[in-house]
Amino acid sequence: MTDRSTETEQPPTSSPWPVLIAAGLVLSEVGILVGVLPIAVGGLVLLASSITGFITESGHVSSPWPLAIGFGALFVVLGGGLYAVGTEQVVAAGDDPLSLAARGVALAAAGVATAVGAVVLRYRRG
Question: Which UniProt keywords apply (predicted)?
Fold first, then answer.
């Protein structure tokens, strides 16, 4: 018989974040490829918030709010760049077969939703 007195009382737990990160990635890609803006935006918001939750849960940051706002700002900048290239305000090599402007709008909208949601939740929770 083995001595189990040194083992912890709590069973190991698993994190839900990897599944949510995968779901966010899939939803954002499907929404962008099919051209359904709400699915793309929802998937990108889910992706950003899941990555933020995963990093916060692992203890790498003390507060999730600056990271979530940073993801939102990054999405807005990248989305604006894609929109500028897609509408030919900025010249890039190659054609635009996959509608970069629509992808830019989806990315920027997700960035705004992520950043605004983080700010609202931050001040709502105190």
Answer: Membrane, Transmembrane, Transmembrane helix
Measured in degrees and rounded to the nearest 5, phi and psi for residue 8 equal: -75, 155
Task: Write the CB contacts of 49 (distance below 8 Å, at least 6 apart in sequence).
Answer: 24, 68, 114, 117
Residue 114 · residue 49 · CB < 8 Å: yes
Q: How many CB atoms lie within 10 A of CB 113?
A: 18
CA dihedral angle for residue 60, residue 78, residue 49, residue 69, rounded to 10 degrees: 70
Query: Which 8-state DSSP code applies to residue 12?
Result: P
- What region does 101 belong to: left with phi over 0, alpha with psi -120 to 50, or beta? alpha
Question: Counting every residue, how long is the chain?
Answer: 126
pTM (two decimals)? 0.81
Which residue type sits at 52?
T
- The single residue listed with the structure tokens 């105190």 is 126
Asked whether 77 and 112 are in contact (CB, 8 A), the reply is: no
